[in-house]
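Quick illustration for those who missed Monday's session on complexes.
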Amino acid sequence: MNRKKLLIITFTLIVILFSLLIINHKTNDLVKQMDEYGIKYEKGTIKVLNFFKYKNKISEFKKEKEVENELLLKKCDEYKLECNFDKLDFFDANSKLVKIVKKEEDRLKSGKFVYLTFDDGPSKKTTPILDVLAKNNVPATFFITCKSDKETLRRIHREGHLIALHSCSHKYDEIYERKESYINDLEKLQKNIKKAVDVEPKYYRFPGGSNGYATTDTVREYTANTLQKRGYEYFDWNCSTGDSGYPRPNDEQLIKTATSCGNSKQIIILFHDGIANSTSPKALEGIIKYYKEKGYNFSVLNSNTKPIHFK
Ligand SMILES: [Zn+2]
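Prediction with zinc ion bound:
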């Protein structure tokens, strides 16, 4: 063997040795990471041989957690929780998200809840209602129409209330005319909302309720079946304020009606905030006070709420 060959071999061996040392160091880092993340792995006798295996395991784990984080963030959005963990890495964000979402789900599943729901707005009459809600720090759900005042719609969204679908035109003879009409009308409303506040509501309420005189079985079944396939859900109510009746009830009557709905764990109250009929801020204040004193929690409608269907 000549000197030149010997030099090449020595150099190659040094490069191999050096590379092995680097890979070994990197493998140790991967092992440390797997321990930190709680990933199970086989400990080989020669660690460097597992370098790529470990690397894959970590990247799979990261991908899984990122998908999970996305779902958790959607829940945060649904429950109106503050979940801004952008500054944390995927792992720390995940443990925070899991904790915060679980805590809220436990609360939603165990407590007594009252859901304040407002139909036919928003209109000019919504502003004082929003003031009362903000003052009492309670969220509500708004089933809106296309007549909605855009500025108020943005305020509803901004203040953590839920925007839901009622009807674009709210004209019974049009929307219940054919079985497809209500959905066409609803799609128009969807576009309106998307344009104004960039949300896509999935909850809806039939004008007049699912058993209203205009909502025929055919229309309701077709609508519910078609929309439920797309992940939609409709909500009737088990407590009505009577604020759309004639003659208009006064504050005292409104409070009396809305607080005589029994003690069930879940009370969905029907209010109106349309321009023609609405609950007064004073009555709303009294109703909130009553349910707070009775130990009820307040929430927007969410996937833990058992839908009430008249039909
Ligand atoms: Zn209505």
